[in-house]
Amino acid sequence: MINLKIDPEFQSQIPPLTDDEFKQLEENILKEGKLISPLIVWNNTLVDGHNRYAILQKHPEIYFSTMPLPFESREEVLAWICKNQLGRRNLTPEQKKFLMGKQYSSEKRTEAFRGNQHTAKKSGSVQSEHNQKPMKTCERIAQENHSSASSVRRAEYYAHGVDVADELSPGFRDRFFREELHIPDYLLENLGKAKPEEQAEIFEEIKNYVPKPKKVKPNKVTVKQAEKAASNTIDENYDVPQKFLELYYRLHNAESLMRKSWEVTFDLNPKLLTHPEQVKVLRFALKPHLEFLKTLDEVLAESSSESSKTA
Q1: pLDDT 10s digits, 31-46
Q2: What are the angstrom distances between the C-alpha of 207 and each of 12, 166, 175, 263, 268?
Q3: Residue 307 neighbours by CB under 8 Å, 6+ apart
Q4: Where is the composition biased (Polar residues) (predicted)?
């Protein structure tokens, strides 16, 4: 086993896996018996493959290889990590915006470090052939990600805001990207723009932010769709088939989001379960949701029964 260095800053650019995603990755690696793709390294420091490397620590018998890349600076490494992660298909809008902002920030510092030589060379060739100005870094990143230059510039403030929040409250970044926290873009952008002496006040606003609840009504269309889905009785050892993993993650995230939202509400309203009038409000708010879940459960039970008869 080669002992690779873990750089916290490099690792923090990579969106975290959920527990289920990590478990599935581990099962896939054990099934293959080796890592199919090499770990990317720079001067014996891990650049890409942190989750796979963590699994290797648990299973040293697994064969793996490394691929060193000739980066010239930390900023170049950070820019590469962000660009590589932006090629993933399963990024949330928050993760994508964060990575675009970090890539833009890193590439700007890389160009400053090099004296902007790369841009100057590219500018000369483009101007001589097409008589056009060279594409700005934010414009290129925007084009690569089907976005706009202004969005990339705002993303830089946004990404810095996420980092500042994580410094003020360690673990914020992971919780945010696991969708346990729901903070509007403008608050994180404001935090990223703020002077150091202003950051604590803005972060206090972020901590106290409560998203407006969406009205939930029983949805007949959803119930009809559920009627079409056949489902057997599920036990705790059920192994979700590979082709349905994406569907499972969507359902799991929906349930987790609902539960976390209620936990925040209870934390902010400690008498919600004890104060008589607040209990009435809670019951009134929950009634349509509980009726919907009851209807859905009955549909699933009936569907499961029909499946057993035809099996």
Answers
A1: 999 998 999 999 999 9
A2: 21, 12, 13, 14, 11
A3: 230, 231, 232
A4: 116-129
